[in-house]
Amino acid sequence: MSTRYTTHPDEMEVHYNMGSDVEIIGYNHHGKTFLCGGCETPITISVRGVKNGQLLHPSKTVPLKGYPHTGGFHDSNGKKWWLFVHCPKCEYDTAMLKIPLLEKKFEHKSKLELEEREFDGILGDVQNHIENCSCPYCSESNIP
């Protein structure tokens, strides 16, 4: 049974000039990728108006969103915002508080996948060498 996604009535896309904590969080996470808390799909965050930030292709990013909440982050007017990213694949809302850990998880997973590809390449090179080498060290009788 899937949960239907509903929006908060005051939900909006977060923008850089909201100031204070919201501005810092937006700047620090703009362009970073994390694994969705629901389906582990990689998601890259975009924040409107980030100054001196990299330009990101809108179809490949998901906006940081927020709504007023007593447990949220402050803007320059003293208002608190609950910040999150909505997954376009599974519709899970990942809270900003979870995103730094999920960014690390994405980095770790990416490094592991790279290492596995490198290992598979080396293993393939070794197997190719063994199959095509006639020296006594590479003969099948010497391979356990």
What attributes does this structure have?
6 strands; six-stranded mixed beta sheet; single chain; 2 helices; alpha+beta; 144 residues
Summed up, what is this model?
By secondary structure, the chain is an alpha+beta fold. It has two helices and six strands; from the N terminus they run βαβββββα.
Write up this protein:
This protein has a domain at 12-105. 31% of the residues lie in helices and 23% in strands. The protein contains two helices and six strands, in the order E-H-E-E-E-E-E-H. Strands 1, 2, 3, 4, 5 and 6 form a six-stranded mixed sheet that branches. It is elongated. The model has no long low-confidence stretch (mean pLDDT 82).
Give the mean pLDDT: 82
N-to-C series of helices and strands: EHEEEEEH
Strand content: 15-25%
Radius of gyration: 23 Å
Task: Tell me the number of helical segments per DSSP (H or I, 4 or more residues long).
Answer: 2
Structural class: alpha+beta
Instruction: Give the CA-CA distance, first to last residue.
Output: 51 Å
Helix content: 25-40%
